[in-house]
Amino acid sequence: MHFFVRSILAALALASPLAQAAGSTACQPGQPIRDSGYVKIGGIAQWISIDGADCAKPALLLVHGGPGNPISIYENDPYASWTRDYVVVHWDQRASGLTWGRNAPAEDTPLTLAQMRDDGIALSRHLLARLGKRKLVLLGSSWGSILGGHMAAHGPELYCAWMPVAQVVNGADTMRASREIILARARAAGDQATVERITALGAPPWTNPRNFGILRRAVRKYEALVSDPATAAWMAWKAARNTPKARADYEAAEDYSYIQFIGMKGDGIASTVDMAAQAARFGMPVYMVHGDQDLLAPKEIAQRYFARIAAPRKQLVVVERAGHDPNIPLIDAQARLLASALGGRCE
Predict the structure, then answer these.
(1) Cis omega (within 30 of 0) on the bond before 205?
(2) pLDDT tens for residues 254-269?
(3) For 56-87, what is each residue's pLDDT tens digit?
(4) Beta carbons of 121 and 151 less than 8 angstroms apart
(5) Which residues of 160-189 are buried (b: 16+ CB within 10 A; e: fewer)?
(6) If both were cysteines, with which of 118, 127, 130, 314 could 286 make a disulfide (CB 3.0 to 4.6 Å apart)?
(7) Closest CA to 193 of 202, 203, 182, 207
(8) Bridge partner list, 274
(9) Which DSSP string do the residues of 1-17 spell out, in sequence order?
(10) Contact 47, 38 (CB under 8 A)
């Protein structure tokens, strides 16, 4: 594997991720790029990978969901084919994936949205210098729609477009709406077991961290009835990442990030999120894509948030037969919208 930082020691020696100047970029128009390695971001080594058939194409930074669920682990992830039209960057965020494996935090170390936002902005600046680009395309799904939205709002000069997918707008209101939808569908289906399970949770906000997991399982059950399934090939792990240590690290990071997001008493990151108040003004076009059958982050809440967004241009596409998690209709809608909006350029 070719590393754009020749070793982790060299990466850690950098004073900042900006140390590599744009003039030293190895990314030349017409040439493919396939690099991966650690860069020092926010004081720690964070894993990124860059893959594109042509360095002249727009660079796209993917902000994964979770927190703690990097898609860089998959051999043929939903965006693998996008490397024909973009230079695609995967980032294992703080406390996830290979970044966790190098820098596992103590259990009582807090994870904050502001810290991760600053990580993302610093990484974006590093990528612009590394790739010799003026701006990036930014795309984030689910948790990534929160983190990416904060990055876009705080670093408008860095991005030519922001694409939130499966937008999560806030904490308790979103969970409350999701719970009501699931109760209604379970009652209509005569699913008394689910009705009893979800009723027993009470209305959010919750102080039991298990409650959100119970709701999430019910959401997946009912979304599966009204949406197309994900492509099975998307879920196959890369051989290099499919080791006992890597899987153990993934699970440990996911558990830690879940608790940090929900909180032991409902006081985690989710309780602080209010996108309409925190990130509704953008200095770049906003192209939102949302599943019509998203029962975790109901489309009505995303639509109300979208109406409040101020941006040079904005467009919302609601996708039929799509839920919260990626499937072919949701990914295809993103690809079509970006191709139409950018016309192959990012300026």
Answers:
(1) yes
(2) 999 999 999 999 999 9
(3) 999 999 999 999 999 999 999 999 999 999 99
(4) yes
(5) bbbbbbbbbbbbbbbbbbbbebbbebbeee
(6) 314
(7) 182
(8) 170
(9) ---SSSSHHHHHH-SST
(10) yes
Q: Which two tokens stand for residue 71?
A: 């898609």
Cα–Cα separations (whole angstroms), residue 273 to 112, 145, 323, 331: 11, 11, 21, 25
User: pLDDT tens-digit profile of 2-37?
Assistant: 333 333 323 333 333 333 333 345 678 889 999 999
The letter for the amino acid at 331 is: I
Q: Report in angstroms the alpha-carbon separations of 148 from 45, 97, 208, 278.
A: 20, 18, 27, 12
Burial class for 55, CB neighbours closer than 10 Å (0-12, 13-18, 19+): buried
What's the token pair of residue 154? 């705080």
Distances (CA, A) of 246 to 5, 11, 104: 21, 21, 12
Residue type, 345: R
Is 72 in a helix, a strand, or coil?
coil
Three-state DSSP class for residue 74: strand
